[in-house]
Amino acid sequence: MKSTVLMLALFVLCAAVAALNGQQRNITLKGSDTIVILGQRWAEVYMGKNPGVTIQVTGGGSGTGIAALINGTTDIAESSRPMKDKEKEEVKAKRGNEVLELPVAVDGLAVYVHESNPVSELTLQQIKAIYTGQIKNWKEVGGRDDRILLYSRENNSGTYAYFKEHVLENADFHPTVQTLPGTAAVINALAKDRRGIGYGGIAYGKGIKHLKVKRDASSPAVEPTMENVLTSKYPISRFLYWYFAGAPTGDLKALSLWVLSKEGQTVVEKVGYYPLSDRDRLASLAKLGLAKDRASVKQ
What we know:
Layout: H1 2-20, E1 26-31, H2 36-49, E2 54-58, H3 62-71, E3 76-79, H4 85-95, E4 99-108, E5 110-113, E6 121-123, H5 124-131, E7 149-153, H6 158-166, E8 178-180, H7 183-190, E9 196-200, E10 209-210, E11 212-214, H8 226-230, E12 237-245, H9 250-259, H10 262-271, H11 278-287
Parallel strand pairs: 1-2, 1-3, 6-11, 7-8, 7-9
Antiparallel strand pairs: 3-12, 4-12, 5-9, 5-10
Helix pairs in contact: 2-10, 3-4
């Protein structure tokens, strides 16, 4: 009996010490379906190096992850769009902490078609015209005499929000657009549909064809390669974010620092997204209270 009480007291003491140190051995990530494959790979590698830490990663869309952060049901919201001011205010009201925004990777938002589609490039204006219903046949942009079928993400997706704002310039999608629950579903649909067009994170572009994109009719057509995305030559690139309710501490901070390390950023490239530039990585590290000088970016 005494030994049981002693063990219980020791357990409580250890838990209290862990709490005081800001440590937590179970970490949850929820949100963007664009980032979920990256979050899962980060979790696998990190848990292999830190056997005492358990990381659970789920998707559902950026909006779902942000809602979970507001409600306190996730430690990290993964988002492929910036949080809105209203959402940040809700976090402050419900969680009592300011939101910390941490860019963790870069994505070239790709425009996909079936690999047999003869069209190889589009301007931003043509993409907008296709998705708003002004262009309805592939022959209008140099392709076959075929009706264009539109595929999109659902409206709680950060990719949907980014595409609507930056490509459609906040115009409405055409009513015939087929919304699908994740980028993988868009890719699967396009792999079977030679008339289709879709969009999503560059890391998902397997088994289909991504188009070169032109800012306007007189601009060069640019592929979403790492060099073109990181130098802003590709016109629809974006950060991928982690969001926290307050500054992370303990295991949560240790994970964040590792993700921003050279090793963590190598995982980004292996998954198919693009690592942060040294300048942007330095800025993210500074948000965690580190990297007061450029020597930190070498780690």
